[in-house]
Amino acid sequence: MKIDPNSTADYSAQIAKSIRDAIISGDLIVDNRLPSEQELAEQFDVSRPTIREALKRLAAQSLIRTQRGAFGGAFVRRLSYEDARKQHITTSTLLLSMNDISFDTACQARYAMERSCVGLVAENRTEAHLEAMSRELKVQQLPDLSDESFCASDVGFHRALVDGTGNPVLSYQMAGAIEAMQPLMNMITFTDRSRAEIVEMHAGLLAAAANRDTKRLDSEFARLEDYTLKLGRSVFQKRKSLRTNKGKSSAGANSSLILRQDGSET
Amino acid sequence: MKIDPNSTADYSAQIAKSIRDAIISGDLIVDNRLPSEQELAEQFDVSRPTIREALKRLAAQSLIRTQRGAFGGAFVRRLSYEDARKQHITTSTLLLSMNDISFDTACQARYAMERSCVGLVAENRTEAHLEAMSRELKVQQLPDLSDESFCASDVGFHRALVDGTGNPVLSYQMAGAIEAMQPLMNMITFTDRSRAEIVEMHAGLLAAAANRDTKRLDSEFARLEDYTLKLGRSVFQKRKSLRTNKGKSSAGANSSLILRQDGSET
DNA sequence: GCCTTTTTAAATGCCAGACCTTTAAATGCC
DNA sequence: GGCATTTAAAGGTCTGGCATTTAAAAAGGC
User: Which among B194, B206, B108 has a CA at the least distance from the CA of B160?
Assistant: First the structure.
């Protein structure tokens, strides 16, 4: 194992890549112990701090865990569904919030993905899934519920629904759509949305899932998508006219998901 | 900004989290410069190496970039589609390869997701997308193509197809299904699959996309899913009988995606 | 002889201080 | 005014060390 001193990348990045590749290729398998930091330093011919930086990179991706003490060290970690899900949500959230993505694009992607679950939900949903959805539905009807809690329950409802596919891999993939996009879209539309209407559509989804009615599941999603899309458009229309009234040309409210802080663009 | 010396987490993990949260919340926006490592060390009251470890964690997630020299430093990085895609693929690949996930589950998830694109592909595909698909189709018919290249072209074909939705967010989300799962599934089935049959189904998908025929797109996907599923099952059936003949009970070939190296389970 | 306690060694976690390299701005020369 | 030189700021790396954790080995008590 050697590293290239002429590479543009840092030593720690090269070393991290080398170990990461070993994990992905299967040369290092779950719970294998890596050599100690001192040994790695000798193997790669760098100092211990450099090795440590490389290991921290891997730890940031949940690829290893470290354990102190005698016979401790760095071990290849089994990536759990929960870890993968969190990473996927973080990445998706950042991608959406740092790039100019239109509300329509996000909305379209979000619903296209969730609608891919309808057939499997109708087939595989259990009573437990229906109960979880029903629980969230009740929460959403509480009169004094904060907007944050309503959004959280909204996410919980949809998560329960996609869990109804009985396919954990699919649930994990859906997290990017539901748990990353839903809150961002909520942040834009919460002022104008009607909780009653959303609750009604959720109730429709729940009933369709209970009846294993694929077609109705799909049509309820179509309604929800349509509603959200219109809501988003009306919000951006309002913002646009507000801005126009103020006399700012501002190149048109581009209906982006990005909520800029202020004019600080240094 | 202070850190908790009694926390179970490392200082570097706590500091990384603190900065990461600032980025996600929008307190630090794209191209903002973080304080120098020396200044951060003073602010958090830790040493510079500890700060550096924290920054490497963030760099591993593509959240910051660093620049040497005067007026250099760490800057908040705009997460590009390509970065997000790579991370998503890596995470998905690892999740699949480190957990006991059945071939059926992976296959089901993969096709459910890609099929969610059919409507938008029919609507939004351009000539460029069709050409990209057509190019890959030709590659797949080359007689001396290696299995690796066939797999790569297979992925390329499906990527071009989902790009046909015209929705980059959806394309990004699909990468987890197509570019992570397809190669893993190929690794299992490449011995038994018929290239001619796959090419024929790809041709069907291309024709359907060209004709903006949503229904046919969906039925071709159903064919492909069915074929892949049967292929996977027959491969695992074979392995199972091989093992039984050898006299190993081995608790039944569990048709998992994991390809264990050998008996090394220390 | 067995159980409990103490010791010890191997790791990681963290720190101080230094030197090298890179880079862009400031300076000075022509 | 334009070009070459200097300089300072910042990250990249190394050496060496101390602190803390932890499990195994050794010692001791019953």
Answer: B206
Residues of chain A with pLDDT under 50: 249-252, 260-266
Paired with B73 in beta bridges are B67
The DSSP secondary structure of A29-67, one letter per residue, reads: -TTPBPPPHHHHHHHHTS-HHHHHHHHHHHHHTTSEEEE
Q: What is the pTM of this model?
A: 0.89
Give pLDDT, residue A224.
96
Name the residue of chain A whose CA is nearest to B162's CA: A109
Q: A14: nearest CA in chain B?
A: B60
Which nucleotides along chain D are within 7 A of a protein C-beta?
7-17, 20-24
User: Which of 11-40 (A) contact B at CB < 8 A?
Assistant: 12-13, 16, 23-24, 26, 29-32
Which residue ranges in chain B fall short of pLDDT 50?
249-252, 260-266
Smallest CA–CA distance, residue B97 to chain A, in Å, is 8
Q: Nearest CA to A124 among B197, B65, B74, B104? A: B104
Give the pLDDT of residue A241. 76
The pLDDT of residue A247: 54
Burial grade of A48 (CB within 10 A; 0-12, 13-18, 19 or more) = middle
